[in-house]
Amino acid sequence: MRPRQGPSREEDAINTHRSAPELRFGVNYTPRRGWFHAWHDFDPGLAREDLAQIAGLGLDHVRVFHLWPLLQPNRTLVRASAVDQLVRLADLAAECGLDVLVDGVQGHLSSFDFYPEWTRSWHHRNVFTDPEAIEAQALLLRTLGRALSGHPRLLGLQLGNELNNLVEHNPVSVAEVDHYLDTLLAAARDGLGDGAGLVTHSAYDAAWYGDDHPFTPQASARKGDLTTVHPWVFSADCARRYGPRSPQVHHLAEYGTELAAAYATDPARPVWVQETGAPEPHIPAADAPDFARATLLNAAGCARLWGVTWWCSHDVDRSLADFPELEYTLGLFDSAGRPKPIAKALSATVAELRATPGPPPTRTTALVLHCTPSTRSVSGPGGAFFDAWMRLRQEGTRPAVVLAERAADTAYLAARGITELVDGK
């Protein structure tokens, strides 16, 4: 079957949708003083200032991160004082009218890996496969869940930030990843209790685009209470390949949401754009406000979107050494707490979306993805499927994505409202 024709200008496509009223918009919280090293000498007053600035943009939630070595310096010890810091931060967010998602195992943050000493050097353990290391992480997540359960502004508990970044130093198979995720998701749920919040996990884009990467799209789209995606413009050199103002960049989060929806077995499973941002020089500062606006508007045209959480709240202070250059400029606020033009654009766009409620149009046309674990890169920037989807989008179609194995499943297609299939080969 062929898609409908009739190209339209990108700006027309951006502005013809209506977002669902329950969409959530937030930011990943990075303390402006000391970055995440601020946990060594946590200052509630400074944290509240940061959170009040975030709330002032009209955002409704934050995603927060503690450091694994500080939470669990010994395999059998979870420090009560460090857990109390997280609970205190959730309380401060609530005072500012913000909901909170807590990530448990960090793990990886902004190019740095944080391991407790009991996993390193003379005590080296593979964090994904060593049974005692897995049980230690389960202990941490159960402890965090019990401390946070019942908090009035808790969104939920996530296993950790982009845990698949750790595979470089912790070799693991697909089956071992599945066991690891299942074990830790069960521990987090046990800690929180039934119905006490979301239990989720996250992975960076190699899970979707990386050939034979051990964290799979199926694991992302079928484990946990919803699917999280982190569609970064530097993945597979997207912004450099197509240009910072290109449709491919402006529609990247929308595409990532639709790709994730294709891998879910439940047609109604929500997808959370949990990280996206405007890293320089991939997105020049002058283009960042337009990028933020387009990203939110386009993603909001996806029926399964849960919400968008921007990375990140505050720039890394340049007094801190050894970060990749792009990490110093990702904030909505600079390191002194001043809002940047991108913050104003994001805030205005969120207000606009909230003022125009209603479900987005059903995507009746879907591009069929033929993909194996060793050819996953076809669906990433530069891949044939990615380019085919973007061509349809520029022609005026709002394509969904369907896996080839589901293309003949009429009940499944009907549940998603799909009436036309276009071969993505």
What tags apply to this protein structure?
425 residues; alpha/beta; TIM Barrel; 8-stranded parallel beta sheet; 3-stranded parallel beta sheet; 15 helices; 36% helix; hydrolase; GH; hydrolase activity; Glycosyl hydrolase
Strand and helix map with partners:
Elements: H1 10-15, E1 24-28, H2 44-55, E2 61-65, H3 68-71, H4 80-95, E3 99-105, E4 108-109, E5 112-113, H5 131-148, E6 154-160, H6 174-192, E7 198-200, H7 206-209, H8 217-222, E8 227-229, H9 238-242, H10 247-250, H11 252-263, E9 271-273, H12 288-299, E10 305-311, H13 341-355, E11 365-369, H14 384-394, E12 400-403, H15 410-416, E13 420-423
Parallel strand pairs: 1-2, 1-10, 2-3, 3-6, 6-7, 8-9, 9-10, 11-12, 11-13
Antiparallel strand pairs: 4-5
Helix pairs in contact: 2-4, 5-6, 11-12, 12-13
Describe this structure in words.
One of its GO terms (molecular function) is hydrolase activity. Keywords: Hydrolase. This is Glycosyl hydrolase. With 425 residues, the chain is an alpha/beta fold. It has one domain (10-361): TIM Barrel. 36% of the residues lie in helices and 13% in strands. It has helices at residues 10-15, 44-55, 68-71, 80-95, 131-148, 174-192, 206-209, 217-222, 238-242, 247-250, 252-263, 288-299, 341-355, 384-394, 410-416, and strands at 24-28, 61-65, 99-105, 108-109, 112-113, 154-160, 198-200, 227-229, 271-273, 305-311, 365-369, 400-403, 420-423. The strands form three sheets. An eight-stranded parallel beta sheet has the order 7-6-3-2-1-10-9-8. Helix 5 (131-148) runs parallel beside helix 6 and helix 12 (288-299) runs parallel beside helix 13.
